[in-house]
Amino acid sequence: MTTGGMFADIPVEIGVVFEGERIRKPSMYVELGGPHTPEKFEILRIRDRSAVEDGAVRIEGPDFPDMKEGTTLPFGILVEVSGSTLDPDMEGVMERRIHDFCNWIEGFMHLNQRDTIWIRADKKSVAKGLRLQHVGIVLVRLFRSAMPILDAIQVTFFTDPSKILTPWQEALATYEQRDARTRGMTDEDVDVFYGCSLCQSFAPAHVCVITPQRYANCGAISWLDGRAAARVDPKGPIYEIAKGTCTDPLTGEYEGVSRVVKEKSLGEIPRIQLYTAFGHPHTSCGCFECTTFYVPECDGLGIVHRDFRDVTPTGLTFGAIADSTGGGRQVDGFHGLSFEYMRSKRFLAGDGGWERIVWMPADVKDRLKDYIPPDLSQKIATEADASSVDDLLSFLRTHDHPVLARMTHDNGLVNAADSVQGIHTTAGNRGPGALQGGITIAFRNVRIQADRIFVRRE
Ligand code: SF4
Fold this sequence. Notes:
Blueprint (H helix, E strand, L loop, with lengths): L27 E6 L6 E7 L10 E4 L11 E2 L1 E8 L8 H13 L4 E4 L6 E5 H6 L3 H15 L5 E7 L2 H20 L11 E5 L11 E3 L12 H10 L5 E5 L3 E3 L4 E2 H10 L25 E6 L4 E6 L12 H8 L10 E2 L1 H4 L14 E3 L2 H6 L6 H4 L11 H10 L20 E2 L2 E2 L7 E4 L3 E4 L16
Parallel strand pairs: 1-4, 2-5, 3-8, 15-17
Antiparallel strand pairs: 1-7, 5-8, 6-7, 9-10, 9-11, 12-13, 14-15, 14-16, 18-19, 20-21
Helix pairs in contact: 1-3
Iron/sulfur cluster (SF4) binds next to loops.
């Protein structure tokens, strides 16, 4: 923990120890961004040296004392840097450090990234004197310390609702420009992928594998960003992965990827398949933009994003599904995703791709409308079509969804090829079982040990 030295003038403590600190609503002074306000962003831009006033921190709008306690405000963070050796491809990677550095501040919680940030300041820290001005000073100093290649850095916060709209729209346009750079590249075009271990402070076994066709789970780091970061700091948290022999092009299994993930996860994750949510899927930390959830009744996958505040047809909220997904584990059917990965032709290729998707919020469907195959789009339900599993099954039947081909009988709705002694399971260790007579059993986080298993042909 760092309490003196470079932070002696900051009224709260600063240190890695505060990473993972959670601020619940009763102890929150204010909330900035988050799911209840659409206008939120954080972005880092590389500028000419003349456009950056080194060390400046500006606040466009009120600081904490002038915010009403208990309220939620739109919020933007703009970090502008200059440096003669900076590569524009590094913006996304440097921007990701805003998350770490904010979380080192006692009583200041930062979640997510880009246009999904969710920040809370707690009452105790504000009472000790913490102001947004201090947050800016801490960011300036931590960036300078971690990145000596910066010549200058300035930070601007936007808290006035009337002043955030323009920079927010500019940030959204910049994210889109960045994301579009790798569209058109394929995983076959390159010999190396990039690994990112930045989130191991939250999920120690988690490693993101970033390929041209599998954008990072957080949606903030592309293959090009990974390349720029690994070139500047090859021993840093983002590193090259020689992909090696591809042993399964459909699920995306590469000998070199599994070797490096095993090493970086300290043996926890020995095998990984990049384009599937089952078997040996890519792990998820907690920063994913969206996640899949398994719907055992139809052997399909739903998708839900952070801003969806209602319950999905399975009765679970985003938060409950995210709890099943995150932590650096491999959980069949519960799989963190970025929006950009869903625009990829490799999107869940090993599971049937879009043909396996049965439900998603209308907002997500709208954002991906140019990427969902047109013949499938109307067959995927939203919250307007289905709020329960029964609604969903009825919708899928009415719209002749291709997932129906995976169902062998009307009530069990499972693949007969997976049945064992009348109990049906899907791929991997997490799946549904349906007993003759219409009872469905869903196994969750279960490990079954058996001395012997008998499989008899009927
Ligand atoms: S989600 Fe993945 S790519 Fe993004 S910062 Fe975390 S580990 Fe890195």
